[in-house]
Amino acid sequence: MANRIPEATLDEVQDILGWTFEEPGLLATALQAGHGYYDSEPQRCLALVGDAVIRLLHYHDGIRRLQTAREISELQSIKGSNRNLAEKGFFLGLDRFLAEVRESNNAVPVGTKKMATTVEALIGAVYLDSYRHPTRRNTIDDAGSAAANLFLFDWPREEDY
């Protein structure tokens, strides 16, 4: 199923993320939002990784900003919410890249949960792909940069430290 996504679509999503995949199959999997539980299982697995990475990014950023644990937790619950993730995904027009939307003869609306899962899966895919990248191995910064490109939050550059 992952091989049905046109290369031009993968290129456009890579441009949005600011990340060129060494393993484009990870990106294709992140865009495979199936209709049922088992159809979307590979995307959901990437989303689990992405969810953990997004939490880590928020915690890291909060500590860098000298916020209290409570402030970090409250901010994470808002910024890491499905609603916020989906809003960012819809703002960027990521719904047009989902395989089920492109392959449907009828307009299939993408719901909040599915869009949030897609955003998480995209971050998870960047995180996992960064291990495969020959010249880059700073996976959390790579995922942070992609998250910043999705407007999830401002990720600091190295010179900000």
UniProtKB/TrEMBL annotation:
- This chain belongs to the protein called RNAse III
Could you tell me which residue ranges the RNase III domain spans? 10-131
Under the heading PROSITE patterns, the entry gives: RNASE_3_2
**Source organism per UniProt:** Penicillium argentinense
- Tell me the GO molecular function terms: ribonuclease III activity
Swiss-Prot/TrEMBL GO biological process terms: RNA processing
Q: Which domain of life is it from?
A: Eukaryota
